[in-house]
Each structure stands twice: as C-alpha cells, then as structure tokens.
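Morning. Coffee machine broken again, so started the prediction first thing and wrote up yesterday's gels while waiting. Chain of 315 residues, entered below exactly as on the submission form.
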Amino acid sequence: MLQNMSTADNEDIVSICANCGKEGDGVNNSCNKCKIVKYCNASCKKKHRKKHKKQCEEYVKKAAERAAELHDEELFKQPPPEEDCPICFLRMPTLYTGKKYMTCCGKVICSGCIHAPVYDNEGNIVAEKICPFCRTPDPIIEEEANERDRKLMEANDPIAIFSIGCDYQEGENGYSQDYTKALELFHRAAELGFTEAYCSIGNVYENGRGVEIDKKKAVNYYEIAAIKGSEIARHNLGNNEIRANNKDRALKHHMIAVRSGYNKSLEKIKELYANGHASKEDYTKALKLYQTYLGEIKSAQRDKAAAADNRYRYY
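Came back before lunch.
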C-alpha cells in the first residue's frame, strides 16, 4: 500500500508494509507479481501471500488489459505517408515498380522522374542514361552496380545494407545464399531506420529461413514494421488476423494498408465484404481511401513512364 503523508513544506509518499503496517523507506520489498503491494521484508511477504493472492491477480489482470489497450492504440494508428520524391516532390508510390533506389547517390526516385528526360546546364537533353538526381551514369555491368552498393553499405546507408541482405537471402547478384548473413544485415538496416527491414525479419521467422519458425517473433517484427509505416507488414498482420478468425482486427489492419496505397489489402476487404465479415460501408470507405491515395501519387509524368514501360507501373 502507499499512503500520502502531508507536511508543512511538501507532500511525501510513504510506503507501508501490507502485512505489519510498518512505515518508512525500509518498506521496499515489492510483490514479485503485481509489483504494487510492498512489504518490509520477505517474511511479511510470505505471511501475507494468501490474503494478497486475489488482489494480486486483479492488479496483474488490469495491468495486462491496460498494456494491451495502449499497444492497440499505437498499433492501429495510421502511419505517416512515405516521403516525397526528392525531384518532383510528389508522394512516393507504394508499389515497388513506381520507384527506384539509386546506387550512385542513395536516393529513392519515383518512376516518373527516372523516365523523364534529363537536361544539362544549357537545357539540352542528355542522351545517355544518368541518374536524374546526381547525374551519375547508370552502371554498365553488374559488378559496377554491386560495388556501388558495397560503398554505400560501408557508409551505413540502410537501404544498401538491406539490398545486399536480400541478395544474400536469395543468392542473387553475385552473392552466395547465406541466411545468417542476410538476417544480420536486415537487423543492421532496421537499427539504422529502414522500416521494411523489420518486415523482412518477420518474414524470416514466419517461414523459417535459416532459423526455427517462430510465429510470435514474426508478429512482433511485423507490428514494429507496421507501426513505422510498412504496408506489407500491415497486410501480413491483417491476413494473420483473418486466419485467427479475428475479422474486426483484420479489417482495421487492411483499412490502414489501403490508405497507405496497398491494393492487395483492398482485395482482402472486398473478400471480407463478400463473405459477410465487412459491411458495404466498410468496402465503400476502402475504395474512397484508395482513390484518395491514387490522387496523391498521380502525375502526367508517371503516367507516361507507365505507358512506355510496365516496369514503371506505379498503381
């Protein structure tokens, strides 16, 4: 128990032993479970155990419920949108084909700006393929691209670190398959702030890629990624909730992913509606959210890029 004791100058909180009533600084032996009720020593704690058991269970239950409430408040917030393209300053598309990581300068640029002509200082179109941000020519051979990635990794660029981690995981781009190295690089990229790395770590544990399958760890990493803005992780969480028959929670996750531009979650909401687990209003809301997203990312330049080459598709 805690009791407030007023004095002329201030108000002090004095600890009181729940068993014998002793007061003072020496009453600091807390209950091992609830951490709330205090005792002056282990003997008093033992003597009071039976009397405190029911109260302790209530304290622990309420604490767990409150922790779950706070967790869900954080989990189901709409994350901020992805950063804008550094050239056209429009919201970056969610679809991976709508943007590209440049290994020359470490910038992520939208498909429209990659496809658009690049001009020199005199206003002439530059014929060769160059980065529209830093004007560095595209790499000619795979090894040149890999070397740029390695240099950026050495400079602690999180996307380069993640990219090489993916190469190790799949055994691509000249890297031998090494799940342990891939997971190490995913963790490093995540610690440096690259959100999708958390999602990939979740995928590693969900599918047992070089580790024992651990669904709890997978969900934990998906939740971290979703809170930080990964629509793929959010989609995965929604699917997990569908499999667990928690349709209301699934709908919440997929609705957030739709607002972030993930069209696969729109399809999931359509399925929920068709199966009677979401209302017509829910599906209508999802369609409106997705249309809002499309309005934020659309541009004539991106449309031209998508029409010219399907690799530049952005929705």
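The chain has 13 helices and six strands. Going to sketch it on the whiteboard this afternoon.
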